[in-house]
Amino acid sequence: MLSLHTFLLFFLSLSGLLHAKSSSGDSVLVVLEPARQADFSIFFDGLKEQGYELTFRGPKDEKPIVAEHDVPAFSHIIILASESKNFAKDITPQSLVELMSGGTNLLMALSEKQTPLSSLASEFSLILPPPGTPLVSFFPERKDPLSMIPIDAPVDSLILSPKMNPVWFSGVPHALGSNPLLVPILHAPSDSFAADTDSNADALVDAAEKGGEGLWAGSQLSVATGFQALGGARATWLGGVDMLSDKFAKKSKAGNKQFARDVAAWTFQESRVLRIDSTTHHLVNGTTPLEQYTINDQIVYTAQISHYNAKTSKWEPYSGITDMQLEFTMLDPHVRTALLPVAGSPGTYSVTFRAPDRHGVFKFVINHKRKGWTHLFSSTTVPVVPPRHDGYPRFLSAAWPYYAGAISTSVGFFVFSAAWLAGESRESKKAKKTQ
Amino acid sequence: MPQAIPLPSDLSPATVANTASLLRIIALSLISGAAIASRLFAVINFESIIHEFDPWFNYRATRVLASKGFYEFWNWFDPTAWYPLGRVVGGTVYPGLMATSGVIYYGLRALNLPVDIRNICVLLAPGFSALTAWATYMFTKEMKDESAGLLAAAFIGIVPGYISRSVAGSYDNEAIAIFLLMFTFFCWIKALKLGSALFGTVAAVFYFYMVAAWGGYVFITNMIPLHALVLILMGRFTSRLYVAYSSWYVIGTLASMQVPFVGFQPVSTSEHMAALGVFGLLQIVAFTQLVRSHVSSKQFQDILFVALVSAGVLGVAAFVGLTYKGTIAPWTGRFYSLWDTGYAKKYIPIIASVSEHQPTAWPSFFMDLQFLIFLFPAGVIMCFHQLRDEHVFVIIYAVMASYFAGVMVRLMLTLTPVVCVAAAVAFSSLLDTYLDAHEPEPEASATDSAASVDTGKKPKKEKAATGSALADLVAAATPTKKGDAPKFKGVYGTDTRFMIVMNAIAMLSFFVFHCTWATANAYSSPSVVLASQNQDGSQHIIDDFREAYYWLRQNTPETAVVMSWWDYGYQIAGMADRPTLVDNNTWNNTHIATVGKAMSSSEEVAYPILRKHDVDYVLVIFGGLLGYSGDDINKFLWMVRIAQGVWPEEIQEPNYFTPQGEYRVDSMASNAMKNSLMYKMSYYRFSELFGGGQAVDRVRNQQLPKEGPTLDVLDEAYTTENWIVRIYQVRKEDLLGRDLKSANAFAKGKKRKRSKPASRRRALSAAAST
């Protein structure tokens, strides 16, 4: 089924109908109550317009299955049935993590209720407030309910477009754990807090008197968070489904449509996607990679890095990384040096360094992890060996005492032998004469 | 002259000599045949396979040598050993064995005999045992005569003490080293007897071969100087000794320095200093002799005194000074452990952990040498009787080798040749005495006695020593009588002769039976393949090792790094062809201790070590199901000790015992034991095998808890038929950046505890102020 999709899409993209698609595939499964499908029509139409193939499925439907023989059937999964307590048996927190390890990207929304998704969220180091406590804010003054909040987009966001209108939000916030793989997308406003809207304000006052201990409040909370998993797949958690809804998108001066677009672009690996096309290494005055290097060799290491351009659906050479490092590692990095782009040849990063004066099995390691970007990792093993038996300098000026010793002994031996032999003959002659 | 048995008298001496010579050649050929044949049990019972551990490396190296040539072998850097340190094989190996096989291989191919290199390796040791028999014959011939030589050759050909290291498939350095040892000694004795620079040079050449072949060459390096020194102290300095020693030492030392692994050791380590010192002493003594022949006696004594004192003081001062400065390396740990058997256990557990380095148990002397062990002292005492220069050598050799064999099991091998030589001397004296048909004539003087062991050359000297107990012993052991005694002893009639000879033949027969039995049962197991008996007595082969190694070879990527205890490193490299962390060439204690630490720590501690070393698979040997006692749990304490030597704060041996001080693996086991990676890997899912019944470890005879250990950082990859080898795969880091324990708990569906955000007291006030 997957292959059929890609096959069709290949032809479609050839015909030029599509103007954008993901770097990891275009099939999208949307898990959503069928009745609510119309509430998100703007978001879905936007995705379809870009060329995504949407498949809809109710949370309790058995078909279409998400993975067949451990092979994920879809490239991306959107779970908007956030209030559903029961999913079909092939959608569990465990199976979703399994799908991510197969490269599937996830876009999920949380709700006030305790659902399977909220237990999954804690695996992503998201810390949720107690059930039934949505984010509320009294500012700015508005006619809308307290739990419906306009949030200004951050100025220097990694994921969202610059100069966006405020994004309307309604749902639960979450605190972020210490996991470095988290990529905050949208923080809660600093004057907002999570609270049970039905109960009185006493609990809040109590918490505030304790200096904020136990209070879910402030801009440290997040309402939309991305997650760059180690395998390359991405996941995005939204505090509530309404962020993507038509209702919010149609509000005046709402940035929700653009927000949905940007979040989907990042989650579905359209933007900020890098890859290492190839790496190679050779001696300074060589061209082909050697099977092993000798200690103190001058080695050139080159990497080709590409960036996915969603507009053209092509990988393009990318020279924009300025902080990449190359490590030459045996247990510990023996050499750690900047791997900088080569001027004049796009996408090429190169460095020349001297191999350490230590033999062993070394690795060229690129380990470039930056928030919001795909991780770049490459490891090439190469032995570094001592010089060959004939690779050492042959004639050492420091060894002159030894050369002199050897030569003088040889000469001395020769002279002694000559003298001895000559002397013997003379003696024997003398002896003969005396006789 | 009366005769007990009539002898033919019409044979010309030439005929007798020719016949004896022919018989000797036939006997030597038969001895060679027997020596080779008795070593083939391993091939017949099992198959043509390389045995044990070290031979697998030698075999692998030989294959490299055979396929790539000598220079590539010399420059071979093995990136798969000691990952990621690698091993400079060419510079850290004694290449003699591989070079020998390589020469044979190329020689046979030049003759258009394409023999598999494996078969050359398997059969090299039996082939060289035949040469050893010949070398021992030559050596013993110098001690006594040809008949003693033949007996010594027969003894060394089949004695279990030597067979234990030279059965077919035991492709180790010792396989050729014993031949080289005996032949070097023979050349040395010959050079000493003749004062021949030629034989001294031949001895040096074979010494070089020995240096290239085995680390035990140090034995020769110290034996020959010791012999020379003792001869000088006995006042037996001759120009023959000077020529023999000087030619051997100079050429031998220069040659030995050409072996890359030895390098400058002959002039920079303590083990080699004795040879250098004796060389210097010989020069001084020779110079003294020269001076003595030119100056008067009084002057000479003064000069000698001053020279000796100053030379001695200077020499010792120079040695101490250079050792202190570090120019001369101090004695190595292995050397200290020769003098203090407890030394290694205290300071270098890695040496003590090798079973070959344990002190020898008494029964093994009888097991390895049988009746030779009680003929041996008799032979040594007979050497005192004549006490020619070469006999001094045998006596020194006997004393030194006896001591070393008592200290270290593996040095039994160096004792065996001298035991054979001494026993042959004693036994042939016995036979000479009782097979001689001549009866003593009552009226004849004692010196006419025809007893073939003629010892009456120096009656005065013997008389001077009669006071000592040793001299009494010598006298008692001597079949002839003292010069002044009017009465004489002798052997009359055929009945005594018959009894003694029959007794001797019976002893020889029992010896042959014992050797055959010991070889077949004790020394012919390849240890790669195990054998057990079925109930009907038929043989059942347990082939778990090869099963596991071939699984690795077939199912893992070629670069997959395998971690195991160092015992199995060479086998994994040889049979599975995968990189290993540590192997039997135990040159880096820290790296071995790292593996020991990973094995003896908990999973959380071990995992970063495994990942840092790029370990993909971990291999453990587990004998609990089958009762195979050489498994890793029994070796575990050595891993703990070696790790403790490097990380005394983190690993402590007492933690692995119960509070009562017992080594247990059952439910009473200590926490450190139960949490260690080794314990978990050994007993993972072991109790499931018993289907709810009580799981029993048949090696330790302990019952295991029903709830077996759990593993979070490893996945079971393969377990062999009899569970002897278990292979685990190391998990990669978790996709979501969690630690593997919680990732595993999540995968099993366990609920995670609710976490709370970190306290933000500071951040809140800071945020409020802005």
Please provide a written account of the structure.
The complex is a heterodimer of chains A (435) and B (770). Chain A has two domains: 2-267, Rossmann fold (3-Layer(aba) Sandwich), CATH 3.40.50.880; 274-385, Sandwich (Immunoglobulin-like). Chain A is 23% helix and 29% strand. Chain A has helices at 2-14, 41-50, 93-101, 116-123, 202-209, 246-249, 256-267, 400-434; strands at 27-31, 53-57, 67-68, 71-72, 76-79, 105-109, 126-127, 135-137, 149-151, 167-169, 175-176, 182-187, 192-194, 222-228, 234-238, 274-283, 293-294, 298-309, 314-317, 325-330, 332-338, 340-341, 348-354, 360-368, 376-385. In chain A, the strands form seven sheets. Chain A has a seven-stranded mixed β-sheet with strand order 2-1-5-6-15-14-12, sandwiched between helices. In chain A, strands 16, 18, 19, 22 and 23 form a five-stranded antiparallel β-sheet that branches. In chain A, strands 17-25-24-20-21 form a five-stranded mixed β-sheet, with no helix packed on it. The termini of chain A are far apart. With 770 residues, chain B is mainly alpha-helical. Among the domains of chain B are: 195-331, no CATH class; 543-747, Rossmann fold (3-Layer(aba) Sandwich), CATH 3.40.50. In chain B, strands 5-6-10-9 form a four-stranded mixed β-sheet, with helices on both faces. In chain B, strands 1-2 form a two-stranded antiparallel sheet. In chain B, helix 3 packs across helix 27 (569-576), helix 14 (273-292) packs antiparallel against helix 15 and helix 20 (372-386) packs across helix 24. The relative contact order of chain B is 0.08. The model of chain B is unreliable at 444-467, 480-485 and 761-770 (pLDDT under 50). Classes of the chains: A alpha+beta (435), B mainly alpha (770). Chain A binds chain B through residues 93-94, 97, 100-101, 119, 122-125, 127, 175-181, 190, 211-214, 216-220, 227, 229-231, 233, 292, 330-331, 359-363, 381, 383, 385-386, 388-389, and chain B through 71, 74-75, 77, 79, 83-86, 88, 90-91, 260, 559, 579, 612-613, 733-738, 746-747, 749, 751-752, 754-761, 763-765, 767.
